TrEMBL record:
InterPro entries: ABC1_TM_dom, ABC1_TM_sf, ABC_transporter_C-like. It comes from the Eukaryota. Keywords: ATP-binding, Membrane, Nucleotide-binding, Transmembrane, Transmembrane helix, Transport. One of its GO terms (cellular component) is membrane. The chain crosses the membrane at residues 30-48, 93-112, 179-205, 277-296, 303-322. This is ATP-binding cassette sub-family C member 8. The keyword NAD does not apply. GO terms for molecular function: ABC-type transporter activity; ATP binding. Residues 41-329 form the ABC transmembrane type-1 domain. It holds the Pfam family ABC_membrane. The keyword Lyase does not apply.
Length: 353
């Protein structure tokens, strides 16, 4: 019995370790199917887009600081007949950056959708060729529903969900990195607290991904009985009224609803906990360092506002980054399952494909 208990503990620890790991092999398989040209285009367009977005915010901060400084100088000199501040250079640079940002957003969206389409076509054609040339023992040992599920649900996930999640994940990650970079540029003292914050965020997201995936699966598993019971109740309403079982079916429906609401409540609470806990720390540290730098280093008000604005948005960016990472981890399971079928040995066949 002691040996059995120890084996169970080892199996449980290995399962938990596998749940905490990111399926990097499936991610590499997905990205390698995109090709040599599309992958650099996707990465470069994302980097350029977020660089331009940060440049737009920085231009606005400089514009605001220059306008405030010019107005303050005029008030100190009591020069009412002097010329107004020249907004023309800043407005031209701002307009050019906005147009460039719109073009890069379009290029990024096209690159993401094009990548998803190419990966889906390549994996689907490879899977179809493998299944057609598979030996008979494969069909005798593999359920037909499992094969159909690879061509329907998994291909649908790769076609529709993974490109959107990949775009959201890259966007939230780059936004989070750019926000931390801007805060560090405005207030270099923030770099002292950035290292412990990064370590804390790493362990929190590692714990959160497992909990979020389990809560999402619990939400899905409790929603199915609710929908099935409601459908059965509507279809058999005449029989239920004939046997006077309305109260029994109503009570059962309320129990299924409570179970699903509990799972949804825990999932929402976990997401809010992740957002508020880390975001509050970042906002507190950024606010203290910005105010200190403004008082002692004569930091401009525009840059202080820029740093605090990005600090307020870091919590939202971190939340979306971890949630998209958890969604990507779940969706990459489809690539992993298809990749498992692609390893099937084909029969010796020399005919036409």
């Amino acid at each position: 019995e002691e040996v059995t208990e120890s084996d169970d503990e080892d199996n449980l620890s290995s399962v938990l370790h596998q749940r905490a790991k990111m399926p990097w092999r499936a991610c590499g398989k997905y990205l390698s199917a995109a090709g040599i040209l599309l992958l650099p285009l996707l990465v470069l367009s994302q980097l350029l887009k977020h660089t331009v977005m940060v440049a737009i915010d920085y231009c606005l901060a400089r514009w605001t600081s220059a306008a405030i400084s010019a107005k303050t100088e005029l008030e100190l000199k009591n020069c009412s007949h002097c010329g107004d501040f020249n907004h023309s250079p800043y407005s031209k640079v701002f307009s050019i950056l906005c147009c460039l940002g719109i073009v890069l957003c379009l290029v990024t969206s096209i690159a993401v959708e094009w990548t998803g389409l190419k990966v889906t076509k390549k994996l689907h054609s490879s899977l179809l060729n493998k299944i057609i040339l598979a030996p008979m023992r494969f069909f005798e040992t593999t359920p037909l529903g499992s094969i159909l599920n690879r061509f329907s649900a998994d291909c649908n996930t790769i076609d529709q969900h993974i490109p959107a999640t990949l775009e959201c994940l890259s966007r939230s990650t780059l936004l989070c990195v750019s926000a931390l970079a801007v805060i560090s540029y405005v207030t270099p003292m923030f770099l002292i607290a950035l290292v412990p914050l990064a370590i804390m965020c790493y362990f929190i997201q590692k714990y959160f991904r497992v909990a979020s995936r389990d809560l999402q699966q619990l939400d899905d598993s409790t929603q199915l009985p609710l929908l099935s019971h409601f459908s059965e109740t509507v279809e058999g309403l005449t029989t239920i009224r004939a046997f006077r079982y309305e109260a029994k079916f109503r009570q059962k429906l309320l129990e299924y609803t409570d179970s699903n609401n509990i799972a949804s409540l825990f999932l929402t609470a976990a997401n809010r906990w992740l957002e508020e806990y880390i975001g509050a720390c970042v906002v507190l540290i950024a606010a203290v360092t910005s105010i200190t730098s403004c008082l002692y280093s004569k930091l401009s008000s525009g840059l202080v506002g820029l740093g605090l604005t990005y600090a307020l948005m870091v919590s939202n960016y971190l939340n979306w980054m971890v949630r998209n990472l958890a969604d990507m981890e779940i969706q990459l399971g489809a690539v992993k399952r298809i990749n498992g079928l692609l390893k099937t040995e084909a029969e010796n066949y020399e005919g036409l494909l």
